[in-house]
DNA sequence: TTTACTGCAAACTATTTGCAACTCA
DNA sequence: TGAGTTGCAAATAGTTTGCAGTAAA
C-alpha cells in the first residue's frame, strides 16, 4: 500500500523526500481523516523543522496524483484521506466526524453519468450527511422526525 | 418552485427581504452554478447597494434550509445550485464546468450507508469528475488512456 | 552536479464579524 | 414597535507564494 504509492511517486519522477514519505506513511496508517493542522502537529516530533507550507504542498501533490482525496466536514479546514481502496464517506453534521463506507460499489454511477453527460469520467466523490450514533444519543434523536426540533445547522432537515 | 421556497422561509419565521427574494429568484432561474462573486455582479443593477456580506449570509441561510447546495469545481470560490429536485453533478477537471445529472436515483445509497454506519442519514452529495465534451475536443482526448499524456492537474488519472 | 524541494515569512483572498442604521412583520 | 437584517469596513484564517538554502538522484 505504502510501497505502491511510493512507486507511483517514482513513476512520475517525483522525488521521494523524507517529508513526503513520512506524511504518506502517516496517511496510510491513520484513518482519522486528519486536517492539515492535525498532520502538522502529529508529525512535529518526527520532523521538528517541518513547515506547514510543505504539508500543504505535499497534500496537494498527493491529491493531484489521486493517492489522497480531500474532504470537507463543515469545520474550517480541509481534511484528507488516503484513497487506497475506493470508498465514500458519511459526515456527521453535528460533530464533524467522518466515517468510511465501502459499500455499495458506485462505479456504475460513473458509467451512467458518462452516458448522460458526455463527459469522459475519471472518478467520483460521494458524501452522505447525517447524525452519527454518538450525536443521536447525545441529542436524544431516534428518528428522522426528531430532527425538526433541533436548532442545529443541519442541511436537508427542512 | 420559487413560491414554495419563499413559503419555506416564512415557515421558519425568516423575513422575506428584497435581497433574499432577488437572490432566490436568481438561483431558481439560473442553472449556471454561480459563485458568490457572479451572483453579486449579476445583481448589482437590480440591487445597487447590495453587500457582498449579504450574499454570503443569504446563501448560507439557504444552504442551512436545504434550498440550495454548495459545490466546488476546483477554482477558488464556492459555487451554488438551487436544489429543487434531487440531482448530482459532473465537474470538468479542466475548465470547471458543472453539469446537472438527474439519473440514477441515489437514495438507495443513503439507506445502505445508514445500515452500515449507524448514522441517521439526512442527505447526500455526489460529484463525478471528468472531462467535458468541449475539453475532450479541445485537448484531443477520445479515450481514458489519452489522459496519460496530459499535464493537467487531473486527479485519478494516475 | 543540478534541479527539485523545503522552510520561513509575507502575501493573498475567500469568508466572517462587529456594529450602527434600517425595515419587515 | 422591535427583533431580525443589511451594509460597510475591518478582522480572520486557510492557503499560496517568493526566495534562499538544501538535498535527492
Automatic annotation (TrEMBL), chains A, B:
<feature type="binding site">
    <location>
        <position position="135"/>
    </location>
    <ligand>
        <name>Zn(2+)</name>
    </ligand>
</feature>
<keyword id="KW-0408">Iron</keyword>
<dbReference type="Pfam" id="PF01475">
    <property type="entry name" value="FUR"/>
</dbReference>
<keyword id="KW-0678">Repressor</keyword>
<dbReference type="InterPro" id="IPR043135">
    <property type="entry name" value="Fur_C"/>
</dbReference>
<keyword id="KW-0963">Cytoplasm</keyword>
<dbReference type="GO" id="GO:0000976">
    <property type="term" value="F:transcription cis-regulatory region binding"/>
</dbReference>
<dbReference type="InterPro" id="IPR036388">
    <property type="entry name" value="WH-like_DNA-bd_sf"/>
</dbReference>
<dbReference type="GO" id="GO:0008270">
    <property type="term" value="F:zinc ion binding"/>
</dbReference>
<keyword id="KW-0464">Manganese</keyword>
<feature type="binding site">
    <location>
        <position position="95"/>
    </location>
    <ligand>
        <name>Zn(2+)</name>
    </ligand>
</feature>
<feature type="binding site">
    <location>
        <position position="92"/>
    </location>
    <ligand>
        <name>Zn(2+)</name>
    </ligand>
</feature>
<keyword id="KW-0804">Transcription</keyword>
<dbReference type="GO" id="GO:0045892">
    <property type="term" value="P:negative regulation of DNA-templated transcription"/>
</dbReference>
<keyword id="KW-0805">Transcription regulation</keyword>
<keyword id="KW-0862">Zinc</keyword>
<comment type="similarity">
    <text>Belongs to the Fur family.</text>
</comment>
<protein>
    <submittedName>
        <fullName>Peroxide operon transcriptional regulator</fullName>
    </submittedName>
</protein>
<feature type="binding site">
    <location>
        <position position="132"/>
    </location>
    <ligand>
        <name>Zn(2+)</name>
    </ligand>
</feature>
<dbReference type="InterPro" id="IPR036390">
    <property type="entry name" value="WH_DNA-bd_sf"/>
</dbReference>
<dbReference type="GO" id="GO:1900376">
    <property type="term" value="P:regulation of secondary metabolite biosynthetic process"/>
</dbReference>
<dbReference type="InterPro" id="IPR002481">
    <property type="entry name" value="FUR"/>
</dbReference>
<keyword id="KW-0479">Metal-binding</keyword>
<feature type="binding site">
    <location>
        <position position="124"/>
    </location>
    <ligand>
        <name>Fe cation</name>
    </ligand>
</feature>
<dbReference type="GO" id="GO:0005737">
    <property type="term" value="C:cytoplasm"/>
</dbReference>
<keyword id="KW-0238">DNA-binding</keyword>
<dbReference type="GO" id="GO:0003700">
    <property type="term" value="F:DNA-binding transcription factor activity"/>
</dbReference>
